[in-house]
Design a protein that fits this description.
The structure holds 2 protein chains of 2 kinds. By secondary structure, chain A is an alpha/beta fold. Helices cover 35% and strands 24% of the residues of chain A. Chain A has one domain: Aldolase class I (TIM Barrel, Alpha-Beta Barrel), CATH 3.20.20.70. Chain A has an 8-stranded parallel barrel with strand order 1-4-5-6-7-10-11-12, surrounded by 7 helices. Chain A is globular. The radius of gyration of chain B is 16 Å and the shape is globular. Classes of the chains: A alpha/beta, B alpha/beta. Chains A and B meet through helix 4 and helix 6 of A and helix 1, strand 8, strand 9 and helix 5 of B.
Chain lengths: 279, 206
């Protein structure tokens, strides 16, 4: 079999214009200016950038458009955008603002035809579907609103249905592993990625280079999305004034450190272990 | 004289922002071309595109775009560039959502990847093997330098026009085509970092 190429995709969670990071999709901390992070990652070999408005889905608002156009102006790699997208018009607006792909979760759960319609208009490769997988006592369910609402559907079946309805990619998040930095949910990632014939991106749990290698090696994914692993290390190199809003203790109390986990290092490591990455 | 003025065709279904910003960042004078615009006056016309072949061709048929494009390529020192779906539209026909006729500027057809064998869409970074000497993309092989996202590929009738070829999980397809002053690229130069910008920059010298 031909060696598979793997994309490394930094995920940037945004709330009120600030980059945040949570644990299990909750307990959010303020980290800095998303635009600066996106630009830094672009220059350091990111294969794609993923912007999510974390509260958009809950409150039905989406302030992301202005960040998208500002970011897209200098970002010559693909930019994916997600968070509360519910209409064809919203997709169109994001694409016009400079997004290349949109990521949808809640709207697909509420009405699967939305995916069919969107992929017909914009092409499958523009429509990524987020699947939030929750392991509850050994049984798997999907969730929406960042893990808040549990839906009694199995993520493996759900991913297949999304594929059949025109989704161009599955962004698979493990709700249990997200933010803990203790490794990916290999079991569900393996099941989902072997059950569909569209690209699957694994997300949630990257704590070390080896975690990333393991999820690539043991499953059939096309990419890995990381956030905490790289965000925490670089937020100290930007001179960013602590905002007055949000949980900013982390920013106020951080020590100046040199970045440890750069994308370049991650790619070098993966490459040394025989994984095909863009360098 | 170096080419300066770039016109990007706005079919209303595309992300035009990226290609426009990329051209602007390289110093081109870039403007969007609306559907009913007449008498194009550009050095380079770009037909960009993500989206569906059928929908895009329906829009083209209802407008004056085809005639304007033909006028443009018949003039001296002009270039026509197709990106992704734009490249596919240069061909005679496509299988997407049933048989659809294309612009027929280059003989050949647009086919869907075999989903049984290949993860489709082909989304990600890949290499291009250069088959023919040209003056916009030089080195023999660019390792994983170009961003692709597509479910269909172009199959030109004649190998004569194939400039670049890409290998996706052991399946080879035409990733750059060139016939006279018409160039098609299956990848997105505006999304391929510095290597992609390099190609767009070189267009002014052709």
């Amino acid at each position: 079999m031909a060696k598979k190429f793997i994309r490394i995709i930094p995920k940037l969670d945004i709330k009120n214009g600030l980059l945040i990071k949570g644990i299990n999709l909750e307990g959010l901390r303020v980290l800095g200016d998303p635009y600066k992070f996106a630009n830094y990652y672009y220059k350091n070999g990111a294969d794609e950038i993923y912007y999510v408005d974390n509260v958009a889905s809950l409150y039905g608002t989406n302030n992301l458009s202005k960040f998208v156009s500002k970011t897209a102006k200098n970002l010559f790699i693909p930019l994916s955008v997600g968070g509360g997208i519910r209409s064809i018009k919203e997709i169109e607006n994001f694409l016009k603002s400079g997004a290349d792909k949109v990521c949808v979760n809640s709207a697909a759960i509420e009405n699967i035809n939305f995916i069919k319609q969107a992929s017909r208009i914009f092409g499958s490769s523009t429509i990524t579907c987020i699947v939030e997988a929750l392991n509850y006592d050994g049984n798997y369910f999907i969730t929406k609103e960042n893990g808040r609402d549990v839906i009694k559907i199995n993520p493996i079946d759900w991913s297949k249905r999304l594929e059949d309805n025109g989704a161009g990619e599955i962004f698979l998040t493990s709700v249990n592993k997200e933010g803990l930095k203790k490794g990916f949910d290999i079991f569900i990632t393996k099941k989902v990625s072997k059950n569909v014939r569209i690209p699957v991106i694994a997300h949630g749990g990257a704590g070390s280079y080896e975690d990333i290698y393991n999820v690539i090696n043991k499953t059939n994914i096309s990419g890995v999305s990381i956030s905490g692993l790289i965000h925490y290390d670089i937020c100290s190199i930007f001179s960013f004034k602590s905002p007055k809003v949000g949980n900013n203790d982390f920013l106020k109390n951080q020590k100046k450190i040199k970045p440890l986990n750069s994308l370049i290092k991650i790619k070098k490591y993966l490459s040394s272990r025989g994984i095909l990455v863009r360098t | 004289m170096k080419k300066q003025k770039v016109g990007i065709i706005n079919l209303g279904i595309n992300n035009l922002h990226s290609i426009k910003e990329a051209c602007n960042s390289l110093g081109y004078k870039t403007s969007l071309i609306n559907l009913n615009q007449k008498k194009y006056n550009f050095d380079i016309i770009i037909l960009p595109g993500i989206g569906s072949f059928k929908k895009a061709m329906q829009i083209v048929k209802k407008s004056n775009i085809k005639n304007e494009i033909l006028d443009h390529i018949n003039k001296k020192n002009k270039l026509l560039i197709g990106i992704c779906l734009g490249m596919q539209m240069f061909f005679s026909n496509s299988d997407e959502f049933g048989y659809t006729k294309g612009l027929n500027l280059i003989k050949g057809s647009v086919k869907k990847f075999d989903k049984e064998k290949l993860i489709t869409p082909h989304t990600g970074w890949n290499s291009i093997k250069i088959l023919k000497k040209n003056n916009f993309i030089k080195t023999k092989e660019h390792k994983n330098s170009f961003y692709f996202t597509h479910s269909f590929y172009c199959k030109p009738e004649s190998k004569e026009f194939m400039i670049g070829e890409t290998n996706y999980s052991n399946f080879k397809f035409c990733s750059i085509v060139k016939k006279d002053n018409i160039i098609g690229m299956q990848f997105h130069p505006e999304k391929s970092g510095s290597r992609g910008l390099e190609i767009l920059d070189n267009l002014r010298k052709i």
